[in-house]
Write a sequence for this structure.
C-alpha cells in the first residue's frame, strides 16, 4: 500500500544525504515552503516512515566492537515470554522471528568473545530456549541503506 508521492521521496532522499537537516534547510534545498516541509515530515513520521534514532548510534562507541548473530530454537508456545526475557539483555540489539530451522535470529553486540560466551549462556538460561547457534560477524559489508529503495520507488510513480 503506497502512501507517498514524489515530494515525500524527495524529502527522504534529502534526509539520507543530511539526516540532521532542519526544516528550513530542507525547504530551501527542495524549493518548498517551510509549512509544506513541516506538514510532510509530520505525516511521514505519523505513518512510520522513520526508524528510531538509536539505530544511528554505533555500539563500538559504547565499548562493544563485536557483533554476533544467534540462531535460537525455542518452544513455540513460550515465544512471547522468551522475547520479553531477551529484551532484558542489554547486549541484544535486535531480534527477528524466522521461518526455517531456527525460530529467532538475535543480533548481539559484545566487548570480546568471552563476553559473547556469557551473553549466549544468558540466552540459553531462558526457560524455553532449547538451542543456540552463534556466528561472529567478520565485518559489515553493506551498511544499512535505504536510498536504493527510494530510487526504485521514485521510478514506480
Amino acid at each position: 500500500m503506497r502512501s507517498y508521492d514524489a515530494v515525500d521521496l524527495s524529502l527522504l532522499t534529502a534526509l539520507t544525504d543530511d539526516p540532521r537537516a532542519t526544516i528550513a534547510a530542507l525547504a530551501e534545498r527542495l524549493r518548498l515552503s517551510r509549512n509544506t516541509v513541516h506538514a510532510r515530515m509530520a505525516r511521514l513520521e505519523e505513518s512510520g516512515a522513520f526508524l528510531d534514532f538509536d539505530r544511528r548510534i554505533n555500539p563500538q562507541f559504547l565499548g562493544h566492537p563485536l557483533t554476533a548473530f544467534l540462531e535460537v530454537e525455542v518452544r513455540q508456545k513460550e515465544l512471547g515470554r522468551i522475547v520479553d526475557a531477551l529484551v532484558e539483555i542489554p547486549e541484544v540489539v535486535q531480534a527477528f522471528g524466522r521461518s526455517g530451522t531456527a525460530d529467532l535470529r538475535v543480533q548481539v553486540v559484545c566487548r570480546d568473545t568471552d563476553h559473547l560466551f556469557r551473553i549466549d549462556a544468558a540466552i540459553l538460561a531462558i526457560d524455553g530456549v532449547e538451542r543456540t547457534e552463534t556466528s561472529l560477524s567478520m565485518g559489515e559489508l553493506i551498511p544499512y541503506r535505504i536510498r536504493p529503495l527510494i530510487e526504485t520507488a521514485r521510478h514506480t510513480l
Summary: The first strand starts at residue 66 and ends at 74. Strands lie at 66-74, 92-97, 104-110, 129-136. Residues 59-136 form a domain with the Alpha-Beta Plaits fold (CATH 3.30.70.920).
